[in-house]
Amino acid sequence: MCGIVGSISFGGGFILNHENIVRAASFLAFRGPDDSDEIFIESKNANVSLAHKRLSIIDLSQGGHQPMESPSKNSMIVFNGEIYNYKSIKEELEKESFQFRSNSDTEVILNAFECWGLPQTLKKLDGMFAFALFDKTSNSLFLARDRFGKKPLYYWLGGQSLVFSSDIRSFENIKGIDLSLDLHSLGYYFAELATPESHTIWKEVKKVKPGHYLEFSNNGVKNYDSYWSLDYSYNCKLNASEIVEHVEELLALSVRKRLVADVNVAALLSGGIDSSLVVAKMAQQSSSRIKTYSVGFEEDKFNELPYAKTVSQKFNTDHTEIILTPFDLPQINSIVSEFGEPFADSSMLPTYLISKEVSKLEKVVLGGDGGDELFGGYDSYYFAYYYDKFQRLKSFNWLFKFLKSIYPSYRTDLLYRLALQTEKKDSTLLDRELSFKEDELRSLYDEKTFWLSLAREHELIWNEFAQYSRNNLINTLAASLHTRLVNDYLVKVDRASMYASLEMRTPFLDKDLAMFASTLKPNQLMRPMGPKTILKEIAKKYFPEDFINRNKMGFRAPIGEWFKNELQGTLKDVIIGGKQDLIPLNYNFIENLIQEHKMGKVNHEHKIWSLYVFHLWAQAR
Prior knowledge:
Layout: E1 2-10, H1 18-25, E2 35-43, E3 46-54, E4 68-69, E5 75-83, H2 86-95, H3 105-116, H4 118-124, E6 127-135, E7 140-145, E8 154-158, E9 161-165, H5 183-192, E10 205-207, E11 212-217, E12 220-226, H6 240-257, E13 265-268, H7 273-285, E14 291-297, H8 305-314, E15 318-324, H9 329-338, H10 348-358, E16 364-366, H11 371-375, H12 379-390, H13 397-406, H14 410-421, H15 438-444, H16 448-451, H17 453-466, H18 472-499, E17 503-505, H19 511-517, H20 522-526, H21 533-539, H22 545-548, H23 559-564, H24 568-575, H25 587-598, H26 605-619
Parallel strand pairs: 13-14, 13-16, 14-15, 16-17
Antiparallel strand pairs: 1-3, 1-9, 2-3, 4-5, 5-6, 6-7, 7-11, 8-9, 8-10, 11-12
């Protein structure tokens, strides 16, 4: 795993000269501590700068050094990621008479590009990646990002120049690049704790979308296209037991792919079903005892260590537990800074802590991310499933609201919430309601672009998938890959692990497993065991019922308690004592939120944490 940065400009010299590219690449230091280099190319009026920071995982020798030139000398690449099927692609290319000087997956991409072109190459690649490839024959620079957006890739366009980087901070100190706050992204951040899929906190900097590539030439952006997407046809013909068996086979194959490395591969074990199944498949396919790592908290309600220990004992892993206590201010500041943009998923803290500890002994770990999004693991997915069935009863909304008032229970509350949903747009099924709602955003800063950002972003993404399916569960699953997964969970995992120079691999986000999951019907996903039925059925082979059917705890830090106690003084110093002029927020409204939280009237922990992170970020600009 690595970090990349570079530029291309036509007729105007190098926009990233040696001094600029060294500074831009300095933000990638933790991504690639093992090796680094930069190169400058002048070709047909194109001035290209490429820099690379390397974390050595495959081909630890200098054979994997980057920037890398193809054997033909017609193309050059900087690559961040891992290609799990590079050996089979290499065999294909050798049959086509292509020569190789290394055992690296990077060289495979170069030769594949020269053999088949980029679109066909991207369809063949199985892995997680972001790369920039300069083709001397067409005088074009290509940017490409993996199917799910596991690896980051930012870019800036200005006239006949393009700058790209793995880290958004690279753009802040480059001569000729002026940045301004994007109110759409900021409003979305305060609602969803992260910036949206293709936008960033800066108007002028964008993200390459997952499963997309971009071609930039003398005439500007020549192509910006998708090379892969899930079809969600839900046409699976297998019966229930066959589905469970096939998913387990695909998961085992996915884990096997991700054990490919020239270093040891360990596992992060939360104690949840997803990471536990990953560990089960690792143990079944490993010839030696695997290593597992778990993080817990002093507060019992956030602690899943006993469940992780159950899994460790079941599969006889070499297990390490790490206890998280309230962070000190320097730690929080450094972690927030490393994300580059405002990012307020509090589980960034334990994710970094465990990554830091694990990286002392390991370079690669497997995790359980993606299982919920593919197999309907969240309550919001279950809600969408019942909402489809409820539609024919919406004429009885008045009755369900009445029942809720006289007979409060889980069932009447569900019916009441379903009744309320019929009065909203379907796209609001994507809203997680973790932080500020629309009326609260308006109180925070009354500017339409700001407080309407969540509704506009989610409606745009929802409509993209609604044209293929009228089923709300399927639409919610499909669109969630482009909201909560790519904006929040994958950003958290990538930044926190890379800050610790640790590579995190995600077996559930495998293209073959995802393609099969997208063919499943709503009833196949949700019956008979509710959310994540299929994975629960697999888990029944290994774990007791009370392990499988417990309440979902999630993975986050107890920041609400910390802000009432250990970090209370720090909170006011940063937010109230550190007002900034990037945007004139309503500080009377903010002070009232803090006071309500402190007195225990309302739990505003996500709102306050998002404000805290934003102010730390803004004050560093």
